[in-house]
Amino acid sequence: QKATKQPPLPSPLRFSKFFQSNMRILVTGGAGFIGSHLVDRLMENEKNEVIVADNFFTGSKDNLKKWIGHPRFELIRHDVTEQLLIEVDQIYHLACPASPIFYKYNPVKTIKTNVIGTLNMLGLAKRVGARILLTSTSEVYGDPLVHPQPESYWGNVNPIGVRSCYDEGKRVAETLMFDYHRQHGIEIRIARIFNTYGPRMNIDDGRVVSNFIAQAIRGEPLTVQVPGTQTRSFCYVSDMVDGLIRLMEGENTGPINIGNPGEFTMIELAENVKELINPGVEIKMVENTPDDPRQRKPDITKAKELLGWEPKVKLRDGLPLMEEDFRLRLGVPKNN
Ligand code: NAD
Ligand code: UDP
Ligand code: UDP
User: What is the mean pLDDT of the chain?
Assistant: First the structure.
């Protein structure tokens, strides 16, 4: 029997030609707080196609609602502890719960996400030749004995504590990144992110800025955990996203600290929130959790020199922007 001529198969090459000059970017954890702001910024560039992979543990579709259905955007429900087979040019690997109450909720899952999740994303980067950026954390410095913390400081971390699933998990993730870089030539970037705040943080996620703002709006006491003299340095999310993109696009592997060096005690933070949002509210001292770092402030010399980056938004300017978002979500207008 004579073979009938088959129509040509749709060629994936023809499809990719259409996007030839486009950059295909995967953002893991893109439905979360920092990830969704990063997606907003990446989508502004018409040459970027953005794929988000997220298991929605702490993130939500709501954070990405303006992009769902957009031709350059794709959202995949995916857990990074499982294999992911796609084609991309860059990977921003953020997937991991960041708030202590969520990462302590299922610590074994947290460490799997950090270790197996990062291994999988490195395997993907290796297979397709993509550049990969890991969002590590200032928690790799533990309860630091050096202040402020430069990237060269190796940290003071409890390997068996309740925070270890997160901080030791991120330390292994950094090790994996460097071993894939040295052993397989993968292009890596590591950001050590310090406390970040801004719109879209989970309202009840237990982190200090979100707690204080929600409490002030609801007229509840601001819960300062003892002793209250512990310090943190808070970076507004737009500055953070700017730093992450500069790191990805630059020539340095890192690790590079990205954070705001403005340092506050938790009592000072509570006083600022009280003054800006609700002067009538009470400040209450409450119990703390184990292994709470006593001080934290980034040394950002490397970010300034290598990325030309430093934060622009001061805490007192960022807090009202977050207040606006929280009021909208809590349904409590300003004059109430
Ligand atoms: P977030 O909890 O809002 O976002 C994390 C996202 O990852 C969520 O959308 C969540 O659903 C997703 N996720 C969690 N586990 C996953 C898994 N196994 N598979 C797929 N998706 C998963 O947190 P964030 O504040 O946006 O933090 C983002 C990244 O930045 C994290 O890697 C975090 O460790 C790092 N970081 C954040 C801060 C901060 O202050 N926010 C500080 C240091 C480091
Ligand atoms: N992997 C992935 N997507 C890919 C390629 C690999 O998720 O496109 C995962 C895969 O599950 C593997 C891990 O990445 O377990 C590490 O991959 P690698 O090739 O480095 O190691 P191997 O497969 O040899 O263990
Ligand atoms: N904290 C506080 N009140 C709260 C929540 C947190 O005083 O309602 C303190 C906490 O003890 C810690 C600091 O704020 O010293 C930052 O805590 P967070 O959980 O926001 O971040 P991390 O400990 O990861 O820096």
Answer: 94
